[in-house]
Amino acid sequence: MDFLQLSGKTILVLGLANRKSVAWHAGALLRDAGARVLWSVRSAERRASVSKFLGPDEPVFVCDVERQEEIDRLRDEVGRAAPTLQGIVHSIAYADYSFGRRPFHQVPRAAFLQALDISCYSLIAVSEAFRERLDPTEGSVVTVSISTTRMAAENYGYMGPVKAALDSAVCFLAKSFSEFSRVRFNAVCPGLLKTSASAGIPGYVDSYLFAEQATLRKEAVRTEEVAAAIAFLISPRSSGLNSQGLVIDAGMGINYFDRQIIAGPGERPHRF
Question: What pTM was computed for the model?
């Protein structure tokens, strides 16, 4: 039974890096559900590395989203392979933490603007480039945000406001595209994940372990769970969802005052 109604659909997945990527898990699940998946990576070197675990017939395109000419080239190359897309998965984010941990008010302008360009504006640029390629009745665009942009995690730093801009862009894209189509825009908003990209965030392991204890199940969110939500939002089964952020945090957002977290390791929580 094709519950997700994805059989025969063509989906472009941007941001594939390795087998730990959200993009990989999402694309693999979409493929297993019967969709034809087209992959996009940042560089020719990345294409060579991912080709080792992709199927021989899976198209892999190169696009550095910091360059508009490469986005335009991606549109043209994808158009030759598939004139119409039923979905786009935007799983792209970047932040430069090489300057070390600083207070937010000391974030370098260049680092902030680059992160905003790659992590947020690229969604706008790609959506516009593929405006006439997206199925006007069933098209769906899904991006990857975070579970909350209202928690000022010091080590995550300036990426919080960048993701907040991404969340807002989802709303404005949904509104502007509604003027001429029924293309939907949504975001998945996961808690902390075990990905290669996350490893570059200062102090991430400690944050990850804390987040795991803050979930209601005491088990971190798995990348496969995020991929399942992406597949649902891409599919026609989610046709009533537009301009939404689907939080996938295993209950972490309501559990910061968990008795065990407050008591700390080795201490018995107070009972009232």
Answer: 0.94
Tokens 């560089």 appear where?
Answer: 43
Residue ranges of E strands in 176-241: 184-190
Specify the 3-state DSSP secondary structure of 187: strand
Nearest Cα neighbor of 163 from 105, 123, 208 is 123
Backbone angles phi, psi at 112, to 5 degrees: -65, -45
**Nearest by Cα to 187 from 136, 131, 137, 148:** 148
φ/ψ of residue 29, rounded to 5: -70, -40
Which of 187, 88, 188, 83 shows the shortest CA–CA distance to 128?
88
- Per-residue pLDDT in tens (0 to 9) along the chain, 272 residues: 799 999 999 999 999 999 999 999 999 999 999 999 999 999 999 999 999 999 888 999 999 999 999 999 999 999 999 999 999 999 999 999 998 888 999 999 999 999 999 999 999 999 999 999 999 999 999 999 999 999 999 889 999 999 999 999 999 999 999 999 999 999 999 999 998 888 788 889 999 999 999 999 999 999 999 999 999 999 999 999 999 999 999 999 999 899 988 887 766 555 54
